[in-house]
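Can you make up a polypeptide sequence alongside its tokenized fold?
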Amino acid sequence: RLWKPEAARPRYLPRKSPVTIITARLEADRAATIDWCKRYGVNVESLIMFTGTEAERLEPQAVAKYKAEALAASGKDWFIESSSQQAKEIAEFSGAWVISTQNFKVY
């Protein structure tokens, strides 16, 4: 597992709730992700996990394409992303507004 929930600390927490989370974490990490959200008081309406394999997740732009597709299917029209590169790609693929917390740009 690349993600270690016991070591992860939030940079930002949502002020409104509930939230929809679209993550590149694998389905195997669902319980740990839900526990992490509960620990930090994040009220989750919907948790959308990456359904592919670890190998598929490592393919170029795979995560951005997955997040763009999940965003479109969710009916939401904006997204917050921690990676500026992924934020740009998600915006290009989805046509939605994507805010990067890495460089504070809106794509």
Observations:
- The helical segments are 30-39, 54-57, 62-74, 84-94.
- Residues 62-74 form the longest helix (13 residues).
